[in-house]
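Quick start: what a row looks like.
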Amino acid sequence: MSRSPRVTGSELIAVLTKGGFLDVRIRGSHHFLRHKDGRTTVVPAHSGETIGPGLLHKILHDCQLSVDDLLKLLNAR
């Protein structure tokens, strides 16, 4: 397993959108994302703050993605 990258909330939302997730609603700075197959997660997009490694792994677990999958989507941008 690779070391988890440092990403902001808005970067993670952009990457997950590229991976097939849609922004279903926004409440404050929290974006609720859903994939067409039913996977859901919430990503905080606080201005410029990076997402901590624990929360990043929780979001990836919710999305059923690995760190390697995230890195591939980041490099494909």
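That is the whole record. The radius of gyration is 11 Å. The chain has a mean pLDDT of 92.
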